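Q:
Got a chain?
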Amino acid sequence: MPAHRLNDIPVAMFLATHFYFTTYHVCVSNGILRYVDRSYACGWRKRILFWFTVLFLSYFTAFMETLTISSFPYYSFEDRTVAYVWGSAFYGIYFIVSFPGFYHFDSHVDEGISLSSSEEKIRVCGRPVTLMDTFTTACGHEMMILTLLDFVRLHLGIPLVIGGVAFAST
């Protein structure tokens, strides 16, 4: 079926990424991380379990996405093993930052503080999340992701090659 394309990818696929990432972050990671955070007593074991869960979910999500898109006709891999094992690990770096960031972003909104005022208790809700909070948090998380990706690239000794018309020298 013909479709409008950008970089030979149907434009609808760019719009579909919103649904993928919403599912990953809301339905999968937030539910599991919330369970770990609220079901165990505070301490170093809980922190280790939380971060182990983040690492596992990051790799698992990246691996499953790579596996499920492998049958899509617009994607091809020269070496499927490398794509599944190492490509998923590299792609999982995005989720290592975004899963806990998304979880902690508005975690204070549904929590309240009970204060006693003379004879009655008053429930004070957390402050609302503003558009500026969302913007600065998203920019900060993206910078952390780019830095981690660059550290991995430098560790592996892969040179930075930027192609395209905008970067061509005359």
